[in-house]
Amino acid sequence: MSAVLEIDGTGIRFGGLVALEDVNVKVPEWEIVGLIGPNGAGKTTLFDCITGLSTPNTGRVVYRGRDVSGLPTHRRVALGIGRTFQNIGLVRGLSVLENCLVAQHARVGYGTLGGILGSPRSFSEERRLKRNAMEVLDFFELGHLASSGLEGLPYGTLKLVEIATVMATDPDLVLLDEPSSGMGPDEAHALGERLLELRKTLNITVLMIEHHVPLVVDVCDYVYVLNFGRVLTEGKPGEVQNHPEVVAAYLGGEAESNGEHSEEAAGGAA
User: Fold this and answer.
1) What is the 3-state secondary structure (H, E, C) of the chain?
2) Which of 181, 212, 188, 214 is nearest to 87 (CA)?
C-alpha cells in the first residue's frame, strides 16, 4: 500500500538540544498509525516538522510523493494535511459552529469583494460551509452545541470540537495530538470507534500521538515509539505494548520477565 506521508531522516536541533535525530516514519494510505513515547520524546516536535511550524535541520517530509519540506504551513493545509494540537487550538471567543466555519476559510469559493458586497455566490458558499460544518458536528454528536460558546465546556468535549473543526476542512491526512486527553475510559473508547468509522467512511489516513495505550491498541494498525528524539522501536500495537525497551522507556527501569507485570506496566504507560 502506498504511503501518504514519509518522514525521511528528519532531525532538528534547538541550540545544543537535539530534539529529533534521524527519524524515519511511514504512514500508509487509509491506516491509523500511532506515535507514542514518554513526555519530551519529541512527538509534538515531529508534528511541527510535518506541518511546517518547525524547520528540520536534516531530512525530508514527503506527502503523496512530493517533498513538502519547503512549503509554509498554509500550503500544506491546502494540500490536505489537517492537525489538532496538544493545547487546544480553538478560537475562544467564537461558538462551536463558528470555529468549524473559520476552519474552512481556505476552501471558500468567493473573493474578498464578493464577501463584502454580499454577492449571491458568497451567500450560497456560506450555506454550503454551514451545512458541511453541521454534518461534521452531528457525526461527533456535537450538533446540539453548535451555538454554544467554548467557555464552560468540559476539556474532553473541547478536544472533540477541535477534531471536528479539522475534519470540517476535508483533510486527506489527519495529525491528532493526544486526542483523548481529558477524556475518561468510556469517552476514549467512543472516540476510538468514531476514528475507525471516519477511516471507513471517508478513507482518511491518521497519524496519532496518544498516551492512552488501550486506545492505541484498539485503533492503530502500526505504532512507532519515540524516546530521546529517536525511534526506539516500531511494529504492531500488541508487540510494541509489551516490548521490554518500551516498558523501560516509560518506567525508567528494566521490564520484568513476568508476563503479567509487563502487561500492567505497558498498560499504565498512558
Assistant:
1) CCEEEEEEEEEEEECCEEEEEEEEEEEECCCEEEEECCCCCCHHHHHHHHHCCCCCCEEEEEECCEECCCCCHHHHHHHCEEECCCCCCCCCCCEHHHHHHHHCHHHCCCCHHHHHHCCHHHHHHHHHHHHHHHHHHHHCCCHHHCCCECCCCCHHHHHHHHHHHHHCCCCCEEEEECCCCCCCHHHHHHHHHHHHHHHHHHCCEEEEECCCHHHHHHHCCEEEEEECCEEEEEECHHHHHCCHHHHHHHHCCCCCCCHHHHHHHHHCCC
2) 181
Q: Which residues of 237-248 are buried (b: 16+ CB within 10 A; e: fewer)?
A: beebbebeebbe
> Residue 63, CB half-sphere, CA atoms under 13 Å: how many?
23
What is this structure's pTM? 0.84
Joined grid coordinates for residue 162: 477541535
CA distances from 229 to 18, 21, 29, 51, 126 (A): 7, 6, 25, 18, 44
pLDDT in tens, 248-259: 876 554 444 334
Residues 224, 204: contact at Cβ < 8 Å? no
Cell numbers standing for residue 231: 525511534
Cα separation values, 219 from 15, 59, 185, Å: 37, 29, 14
Q: Tell the residue number behind the cell numbers 507485570, with chain if given.
A: 261
64-122 residue pLDDT tens: 999 999 999 989 998 999 999 988 889 889 999 999 998 887 666 545 444 444 556 65
What amino acid occupies position 131? R
User: Which phi and psi (to 5°) does residue 243 adopt?
Assistant: -70, 130
Side chain identity, residue 226: L
